[in-house]
């Protein structure tokens, strides 16, 4: 196992919220959101702040650089999930995305983009956020799971993933789009692709049973496996425990898979062994953040850019 892969970035952007709470604007289609009636709003916000702080420390200890930004605002409850509004790409490219919910559009931050320009080689920034005026959404690497090695963008259809916007992104960034229908046990569309799948360098986690069409399910499986990746098939229960919401990163001692403690607990021993053949598991405790319907992968925007000397 080599320590670096184009699939596994060495650095991430994270946002530490000061007034976190599950977003009421998104609970209609984000079926992973839950409510906690046992804690006050202040307690939830304080614990979310602490969870992000500890997660950033654990990543840094593993050798992953974390660019940690503060969000002291009260109008951006989902700001802890920055991977939805921007992504970075080899060659110095940055994309900014159109968001579905109005209050999520306020999460876009010029200081994050300026930091990237100052510390990394950025050639261009392509801003798709104007598509919001046409009612089109494409929520970044939540809507799309990107295979940077094979140049494939996987996406489950939803109101967060407009196919016209995705085709435009894939043309600009040289990805092949693979779009499919994915639903939970009740037949409801899964809102973001990155809760049901994670593409690593030598493995892929995916809830294949969420793809109802057997022909399409086999096509997705075969494309993921065509370069030798081991496929770790996740059950619907494991998807509900955020086992698919993970991100492979390059640490000081090799590749690591960052995921939540809840997700790790949901994995079976043979699945853990499959992952550990090429990456070290790095569980992070984020139960309060998971109330918002996202987990560890959503909390990190990977930096696929070259650092300036």
Report on the structure:
- The chain is of the alpha/beta class.
- The chain has a single domain (11-303), classed as L-arginine/glycine Amidinotransferase, Chain A.
- 25% of the residues lie in helices and 23% in strands.
- The chain is built from 8 helices and 15 strands.
- The chain has helices at residues 41-61, 110-119, 140-143, 163-173, 214-225, 236-240, 261-266, 269-276, and strands at 11-17, 65-71, 86-89, 93-96, 124-127, 144-147, 152-156, 176-180, 197-199, 203-206, 230-233, 247-251, 254-260, 280-284, 301-303.
- The strands form 5 sheets. A 3-stranded mixed sheet has the order 2-1-15, covered by helices on one side. A 3-stranded mixed sheet has the order 3-4-5, with no helix packed on it. Strands 6-7-8 form a 3-stranded mixed sheet, sandwiched between helices.
- The chain is globular, with a radius of gyration of 18 Å.
What features would you highlight for this structure?
8 helices, 3-stranded mixed sheet, single chain, 15 strands, L-arginine/glycine Amidinotransferase, Chain A, alpha/beta, 309 residues
- Tell me the helix content: 10-25%
Class from helix and strand fractions: alpha/beta
CATH class membership: Alpha Beta
Unreliable stretches: none
Overall pLDDT score: 95
Q: Give me the number of helical elements.
A: 8
Globally, the shape reads globular
Write down how many β-strands occur, each being a DSSP E stretch of 2 or more residues: 15
> Span between N and C termini?
27 Å
**Beta-strand percentage?**
15-25%
Q: Tell me which CATH architecture applies here.
A: 5-stranded Propeller
Q: Could you name the CATH homologous superfamily?
A: L-arginine/glycine Amidinotransferase, Chain A
Q: What is the H/E string?
A: EHEEEHEHEEHEEEHEHEEHHEE
Kindly report the spatial arrangement of strands forming the biggest sheet.
2-1-15
Q: Compute the CA-based radius of gyration.
A: 18 Å
How many separate structural domains?
1
CATH topology: L-arginine/glycine Amidinotransferase, Chain A
Largest sheet: 3 strands, mixed
């Amino acid at each position: 196992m080599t320590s670096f892969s184009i699939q596994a970035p060495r650095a991430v952007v994270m946002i530490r919220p000061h007034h976190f709470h599950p977003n009421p604007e998104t609970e209609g289609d984000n079926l992973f959101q839950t409510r906690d009636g046992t804690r006050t709003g202040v307690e939830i916000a304080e614990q979310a702040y602490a969870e992000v702080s500890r997660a950033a420390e654990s990543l840094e200890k593993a050798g992953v650089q974390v660019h940690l930004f503060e969000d002291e605002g009260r109008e951006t409850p989902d700001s802890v999930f920055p991977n939805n509004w921007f992504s970075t790409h080899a060659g110095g490219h940055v994309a900014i995305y159109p968001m579905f919910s109005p209050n999520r559009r306020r999460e876009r931050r010029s200081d994050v983009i300026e930091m990237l320009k100052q510390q990394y080689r950025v050639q261009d920034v392509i801003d798709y956020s104007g598509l919001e005026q046409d009612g089109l959404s494409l929520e970044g690497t939540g809507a799309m799971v990107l295979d940077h090695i094979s140049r494939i963008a996987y996406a489950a259809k939803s109101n967060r993933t407009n196919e016209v916007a995705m085709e435009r992104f894939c043309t600009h960034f040289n990805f092949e789009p693979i779009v499919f229908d994915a639903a939970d046990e009740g037949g409801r569309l899964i809102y973001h692709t990155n809760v049901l799948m994670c593409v690593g360098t030598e493995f892929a986690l995916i809830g294949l049973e969420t793809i109802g069409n057997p022909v399409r399910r086999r096509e997705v499986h075969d494309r993921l496996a065509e370069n030798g990746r081991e496929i770790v098939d996740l059950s619907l229960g494991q998807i509900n425990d955020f086992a698919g919401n993970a991100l492979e990163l390059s640490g000081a001692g090799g590749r690591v898979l960052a995921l939540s403690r809840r997700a790790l607990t949901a994995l079976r021993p043979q699945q853990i062994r499959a992952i550990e053949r090429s990456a070290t598991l790095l569980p992070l405790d984020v139960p309060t953040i998971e109330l918002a319907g996202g987990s560890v992968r959503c909390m990190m925007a990977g930096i696929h850019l070259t650092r300036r000397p």
